[in-house]
């Protein structure tokens, strides 16, 4: 049986990114994510890594597909930000964050 992998696996993308953020940005993370299975699974991995590194998850919010309402999430951000948003939601959230 052959296996085909699409995209980066967590050990190739999420784990190095979190470690880099931890070493270069800060030890407190606020997770903003699209509301579907991959970001929820990714955030489980992120929480495990941050806990192992003795960091802190200060908040977590999920934004529904199709929603452009990110103000609640932006208003709640207390620490460094790790985003697992897709498409237009990532653009909208980034734009709102840059306005603050």
Widest beta sheet: strand line-up:
2-1-3
Instruction: Report the β-strand fraction as a percent range.
Output: 15-25%
Q: Count of helices? A: 4
Please identify the structural class as seen in this structure. alpha/beta
How many strands, which pairing sense, and closed or not: the largest β-sheet?
3 strands, parallel
So, the CATH homologous superfamily of the domain at 22-65 and 83-99?
Response regulator
Radius of gyration of CA atoms, rounded to a whole number: 14 Å
Shape: globular
Low-confidence stretches: none
Descriptive keywords:
100 residues, alpha/beta, three-stranded parallel beta sheet, 4 helices, 46% helix
Short description, anyone?
With 100 residues, this protein is an alpha/beta fold.
Can you characterise this structure?
- With 100 residues, the chain is an alpha/beta fold.
- 46% of the residues lie in helices and 20% in strands.
- It is built from 4 helices and 3 strands; from the N terminus they run αβαβαβα.
- The chain has helices at residues 14-24, 37-52, 71-76, 87-99; strands at residues 28-34, 56-63, 80-84.
- α2 (37-52) links the parallel β1 (28-34) and β2 (56-63).
- α1 crosses α2 (37-52).
- The longest helix is centred in the middle third of the chain and has 16 residues, at 37-52.
